[in-house]
Amino acid sequence: MPDLDSMFDKSGPSYWSRRTDDELLSMQLTTDDPESVENLSTEYPPDDDAIVEMAYNVTGREKGKVQCAFCQYPNHFRGVVMRFRSGERRLVGRNCAQDHYGVAFEALTKDFDEARTRLDYVERQRLAVAQNVDLLGLLRAMKSDPAVKAFADTKTRLKTFIGSPLWDRLVRAADKDEMITGRMRSEIFQGRPIAYAVDGDTGPVRGADLIRTGPAVSQRLSEIEVELSTVMETLRGTEVQSRAIRAALVRMVDLLKQIEAERTRMRSVESFFDDGNLIRVGGWMSLNGRRNIRVAVLPFRLVDDYGQTECGPPQDYRIPGKALVAAMREAVVLQRKVTRRAS
Ligand SMILES: [Zn+2]
């Protein structure tokens, strides 16, 4: 706490509104143990200049309620520590203070509560920046992960394998969530299980995200990177307005969702190259003029015996960005510790 003269300096704006972010961060604005503050007296409060110094909330504690300087008996769980010009302190229930000080107390608490709200924002801002040990670095690492290229390459390989005009029809079905029809029969071929197209069985294209039209994952990640760097720039600023901090944190939550959406999209490779889906897609190709398609195993993949081509999932494919998502979750304090509010 700065010196008393500064606290009771009435020449300019109020005490709490004059505090810088760094000062607020160094101050204790709430206490769970109000009886332990120094210079505390339980006597009736003096008629002296006063300031709300801290708030307390001891709801549910074993020791019971706090003795109020006005009421003179323990009857409050929530209240404030009032500090007087003399340096003395009193514990006062919030309602009591309101009754005894009225308008004056309202002004004092408004000022104090604003400081506490501000501190909340500044804490969240500093936490987000502290976590940014390298959010942008983690995002760039995700973008340059081989799996991002493998995802795009797989789509290209599949497009080549399926060929026109079937590819366009499959993309349209995926875009519109339309069903396709195709089924295959399993057989043992040269000692290994394979599947041949037989007839119709209708269902959706699984892992449709792999083939849907839209920007590439790397392009989306680049767009997210631009936005994230703007957000981080805001959060790294000093004395940033609470509104701007809030907007930046909301933006970051949104970017986190967008990154998770890209990771979900990348997972579509696994669903597409699932045997059931390949049997449906291969069967659909067969029903539409590509009679030479079969599904092979290890890994499950589409094979065109006539064209001597095949298309399977990428090797060593792992979804990147796990560390990034964890760090961003921390930064936006989704699992933020619960601060006890005294009011
Ligand atoms: Zn009271």
At a glance:
With 343 residues, the protein is of the alpha+beta class. The chain is 46% helix and 16% strand. The strands form 4 sheets. Strands 8-9-11-12-13 form a 5-stranded antiparallel β-sheet. It has a 4-stranded mixed β-sheet with strand order 1-2-5-6. Strands 3-4 form a two-stranded antiparallel sheet.
Describe the structure.
This protein has 343 residues and is an alpha+beta fold. The protein has 2 domains: 127 residues, no CATH class; 200 residues, no CATH class. Helices cover 46% and strands 16% of the residues. The chain is built from 11 helices and 13 strands. The strands form 4 sheets. It has a 5-stranded antiparallel β-sheet. Helix 4 crosses helix 9 and helix 4 packs antiparallel against helix 11. The longest helix has 31 residues. The chain starts with a helix and ends in a 12-residue tail after the last helix. The mean pLDDT is 88. The site of zinc ion (ZN) has 7 residues, from strand 4.
Q: Can you list the ligands bound to this structure?
A: zinc ion
Determine the N-to-C terminus distance.
Answer: 22 Å
The string of secondary-structure elements, in order, is: HHEEEEEEHHHHHEEEEHHHEEEH
- Characterize the biggest β-sheet: 5 strands, antiparallel
Unreliably modeled segments: none
DSSP helix fraction:
40-55%
Task: Look at the helices and sheets and give the structural class.
Answer: alpha+beta
Number of domains: 2
| Residues in β-strands, percent | 15-25%
Oligomer: single chain
Order of the strands making up the biggest sheet: 8-9-11-12-13
Q: Estimate the global geometry from the Cα principal axes.
A: elongated
Mean pLDDT: 88
